[in-house]
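**Sequence, structure tokens**
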Amino acid sequence: MPLVDVIVTDIVQETPTVKTLYLSNADGTSMGAYSPGAHIDVVGPTSITRQYSLCSRPDGTETYAVAVKREDNSRGGSVALHELKVGDTLRISEPRNLLGIAVDATKHVLVAAGIGITPMLSMARHMHVNDIDFELHYFSRSEQEAAFLPLLRDRCPERLHAHVGVARDDQAALIGAALAGAATGTHLYVCGPDGFMIKVAELAGQHLPPESVHIENFHATEQPVAGSNTAFEVELDGETFHVPADRSIAQVLIDGGGDVDTSCQEGICGTCIMTVLAGDPEHRDSVLSTSERESGEVMAVCVSRTRGERLVLDYY
């Protein structure tokens, strides 16, 4: 996916560990609108690429905004972004959306924890302005750590349920209560720490069908060691490629001249998703929904493999 140069035009310290970076085109032209829930790739000063949800107004066109949490165990990505100054440059991708607002839903339940509020913020702002039925449940350890909480309280207080300082053992009851008696057509969206999202998805599964539960995950699933993999064949455009145990489908197809886009190489961004025409994918990504996995019709070729000996793929 092509990258463009942008300039940091403003920086806002939201919490002690979260900064919002406002980004504009270097030539002064409009950044353009984006669909609520979308994210971009950001290549930081250390050349590390990470995915960040856009949290500016989706209908705004002058700037993009991303909120970056400084992680204690960062490999340099978030730390470097926190050291940026106004006027510095970055490279970013075009927005893409794997979360999105379900167009057939009659009600939307947004659930966020910590920095997981970022995709939910753009979705909540869009739904509030367009009078779409939603409620937002925001879990945070403290008021001080709750990025954008004052904004949400000001703009959509009647839709917001701020669960500040709630113990982990008590979170399930609140989420269950929010979903109890959920009407047909209700969809749930969740973003936050891995354990939190797993818990919410399990609870949602007791009230909603799998296709109505949407997860935004920017943390890679731990992959099996290469020694446990087996080799197999992949067919693309009538040409057959051999995928050895120690290489990914994406690597092999790109080396063979395939027009396969990649970004994270960890199965979290969705750039490399391809259509499965035949074969049984072994999904190892953190981006596809449960219904997408069960359909067997798409796969993330940067990490996923096959349970059989052959796959037939096409471009997505």
Q: What stands out?
A: The longest strand covers residues 3-15.
